[in-house]
Write a structure and sequence with these properties.
This protein has helices at about 5-40, 45-75, 75-95, 100-115, 115-125, 130-160, 165-170, 170-185, 200-225, 230-250, 265-295, 300-325, 330-345, 355-385, 390-420, 425-450, 455-470. It is mostly helical and about 475 residues long. α2 runs parallel beside α5 (about 115-125) and α13 runs antiparallel to α16. The chain starts with 5 loop residues before the first helix and ends in a 9-residue tail after the last helix.
């Protein structure tokens, strides 16, 4: 790829950040719109869970495939295809006549979204060849996530209040079209010198494992946790996961190399990402239902109440990044886990008339914790792998985030649905307490792994894992 001028490089960065902004914004806005969607379609809680999880599940399943496809056929071409699909999916969501089609169209959105974020990161790393410029560009990229989360509640609340829930998908359309045109004009094409081979069997096993596990969890409150359908889903998920490990060990270029998990920092970062994003997605999902369906707040009022949490994330994420650069990952991980755990414990006192001050303090604690937690996840994963495998390690960390987001909505939503008694408005607060304890438990796990994954023992396992990639790994096809 030819060397670009500084102005052109910054323009490429802006175009990539624009795609990240709309994809991230979509998550926060959709959560705020759930009560309105519930009323319009007479949808149950499980349907609302699928409205979120259909999106995150597809993202989790396709992120690594999209990255390798872009390396093979061209990053700009894949990025443009993602923009087209995401924009088309947004248009279809805005005219969905029922909840089933809305869920299906969210999956179309997600297929496009899977081609945007990982591919945009590849474009950035290939555009900014200087190490310092690349670090600044990635820092800006990360800050956009915080900005989208800060603006999402207010923008979503305004749109749902003033126009209706369908308008939250309309705003993606002009942004997507503009990004598509700008990409064609200013983003150069690039490919990997040697693209990884496709792994269709591994990809299928990933999809089966994630989809069956999530389906079993979400539908269990309706069919019973020990029903034949639920047990079958969990058995299929376990079999697919086991099959994935066996199959991938024999591949020369696996979609997910099991040898990665010999590194404690890498394995720990994967679990941290799942726990942290399970807490975030579960919090956003349950909080939107609580504020609007239980407390009776308008979407705008609910968005304004959630804003302190988003602002805390936006403010503390850069501080966490600086701490990672100067002191390592331990302090941000432990602090982030502590914030998650404390906010979970505070939310166990949630009632139908909990004071606004208590809510705001709790939301700030949660936002501060998550703001500290997110930046060191990728650094921890990458630090536990050989430099040549850093890109794949970062992709697995991103996939783990989406897996956590799916499981957070599935598990916490299922727990509430199982334990709710009487009317939703009166039974929801008490039923949610066990969900908040689960979130607090996720915070404790993050704290423990924050210490463990940065210990001398963990670094020793990372060095041993590096040796594994210099040796043959059995019969590999």
């Amino acid at each position: 790829m030819p060397e670009l001028s500084q102005r052109r490089r910054l323009l490429v960065l802006a175009i990539c950040c624009l795609s990240l902004f709309v994809v991230s914004l979509d998550t926060t806005i959709v959560n705020l719109a759930l009560p309105s969607i519930e009323r319009d379609f007479s949808a149950g809680v499980s349907s609302l869970q699928w409205t979120i999880d259909a999106y995150t599940l597809v993202l989790a399943s396709l992120l690594m495939l999209s990255g390798s496809t872009a390396d093979r056929i061209g990053r700009r071409r894949t990025f443009q295809a993602g923009l087209v699909l995401f924009t088309l999916g947004s248009l279809l969501c805005s005219v969905a006549p029922n909840i089933g089609l809305l869920i299906a169209f969210r999956m179309v959105q997600a297929v496009g979204g899977s081609m945007l974020n990982p591919v945009a990161m590849s474009i950035i790393t290939n555009t900014f060849t200087d190490a310092r410029e690349r670090a600044r560009a990635i820092g800006i990229w990360g800050a956009v996530v915080g900005l989208s989360m800060a603006l999402g509640p207010v923008v979503g609340g305004l749109l749902v209040d003033a126009v209706g829930w369908r308008s939250i998908f309309w705003i993606n359309i002009p942004v997507g079209v503009a990004a598509l045109v700008l990409t064609a004009l200013f983003v150069p094409e690039s490919k990997a010198p040697r693209a990884r081979r496709l792994d269709p069997v591994g990809q299928l096993l990933v999809v089966v494992a994630l989809a069956s596990l999530t389906y079993g969890i979400i539908e269990a409150p309706h069919h019973g946790w020990l029903s034949g359908l639920t047990v079958a889903c969990f058995v299929v998920a376990a079999a697919a996961a086991a099959g994935l490990v066996v199959y991938e060990r024999r591949r020369a270029e696996p979609l997910l190399d099991p040898r990665f998990f010999a590194s404690a920092p890498f394995s720990g970062a994967t679990v941290i990402a799942v726990c942290g994003f399970a807490g975030l997605s579960g919090f956003l999902f349950l909080n939107a239902l609580y504020l609007q369906n239980v407390r009776g707040f308008t979407p705008l009022h609910a968005g304004l109440l959630t804003l302190p949490s988003a602002l805390a994330i936006f403010a503390l994420a850069p501080l966490s990044g600086r701490l990672v650069a100067t002191r390592g990952s331990r302090i941000p991980l432990v602090t982030g886990g502590l914030g998650l755990a404390v906010s979970g414990v505070l939310l166990t006192r949630l009632g139908a008339d909990t004071g606004i001050g208590w809510l705001v303090v709790t939301y700030v604690v949660f936002g501060a914790g998550f703001g500290m937690l997110n930046p060191p996840i990728t650094n921890t994963a990458v630090s536990g792998m050989p430099r040549a495998q850093a890109g794949v390690a970062a992709a697995v960390a991103s996939t783990s985030r989406q897996v956590g987001a799916s499981l957070g909505v599935a598990v916490l939503g299922a727990v509430v649905t199982t334990h709710i008694t009487g009317a939703f408005t009166t039974g929801f607060p008490a039923a949610s307490h066990i969900a908040w304890w689960i979130m607090a438990g996720c915070g404790v796990v993050v704290m423990a792994l924050g210490v463990l994954t940065t210990s001398p023992w963990a670094m020793a396992t990372a060095r041993r894992a590096t040796v594994l990639f210099d040796e043959p790994a059995g019969v590999r096809t």
